Amino acid sequence: MLISALCFSLMQLCVKFLSHLPFTELVFFRSIVSLVLSLIILKRAGVHPLGNKRKYLVLRGIFGVIALSSFFFTLQNLPIATAIVIQYLSPMFTALFAIWILKEPMKPIQWLFFALSFAGIIVIKGFNDDIDLIYMIAGVVSAVFAGLAYNMIGKVKGSDHPVVVVFYFPLIATPIMGVVSLFYWETPVGWDWLIILAMGIFTQLAQVTMTKAWQAEEANQIAPLKYVGIIFALFWDYSIFGISHNWSMFVGIGLVISGVVANLLMKKRLNRNTA
After folding, report:
1. Which domain holds residue 202?
2. At a CB cut-off of 8 Å and minimum separation 6, what does 242 contact?
3. CA distances from 24 to 122, 175, 210 (A)
4. How many domains does the chain have?
């Protein structure tokens, strides 16, 4: 999970460097790289790429495409730290959807934790007039569909190879985003190609290590580790882009992460009591 957080952070940095290209095009290129790498890995492992629980794998791919597209859109238009803090709401939506999809109960106090995290987003937006509401909404949409995608990963737990789960994203994203990109195409030049390749590689590494973590351990045990990503994001914002966040950003970060981690600890306690 720590390796995943680092690789995701480097991927986000690549996306930021490519802000002059349409986000749909970046999702398309990222999908091609992931498609090729996934097929190579699966062939060497002797694993059938289409997997077993294909209905849930297809849904994981569709939800993942919507989540990543929305995230790239916010990432190109907001500071990295702001974009990923909004995306950090995804575990809350994961828990919310798990009530119906994975049949995991949710205690009343967990709704309070959900409200706490959402209050963090309101603080960030309310005290930063330069943040456009459309980007905030896109970020929340990304978190919602990421939550759905994580639930689909839970549905295939123990039945499909981690790379098969990853493979379904580019399998669905490549044709869809390829067609969409034709309407907004801008040809990358020079160093763009190398950054695009790096973006794809870092994303693949992040997805595979994250999927292995989710499938190998209970979510409440490993999910908090992903939040070290905010440290990387704040560092990139300050050292590379010269962005210094005000107090409301740090308060918002604290509220979002506090709500999410409190919910995870509550789930751990519930699981222990059940056991």
Report:
1. 2-274
2. none
3. 28, 12, 23
4. 1
